[in-house]
Amino acid sequence: MRRIHRTDVKAEIVREPGAKETTHRKLIDTPDGADRFVLTEFDIAPNGSTPPHHHDWEHEIYVLEGEMDLVLPSEGRAERVEPGDAIFIPRDEPHGFVTGPDQSCRFLIVAPCERPPVRNFFLSDDPYEYTQMPEYSSAREGK
Ligand code: ZN
Q: Which domains, from first to last, does the chain contain?
């Protein structure tokens, strides 16, 4: 058994192309002995995002605190999620996360250990910034 408190794990800036104001803590990772699944806590500050992307592995999401919009490009919409929501993203389903100026969100993600980056396809070509709201997230007001 291995017990880890979130504050024992350093928050790292997410440097995926297009990610903004997003940090994560790898709560349980392969160095801890995990060989099937990793557990990661994400924290998106106001005006943050992870760009819409898809990959051939699933992940599970559990919202702990705050709120954000889950962007679903293939459905042409975004959906507000809040604490207590559990969300399943099947493999290859495009998804992204966005917070507005008065929003932030802390959530857990469970993902397989084996997730080769070459299979991570970002829909955004913008390498470092993500200031333009995509048309499919127009459900969010005031931006
Ligand atoms: Zn993803």
A: 16-115 (2.60.120.10)
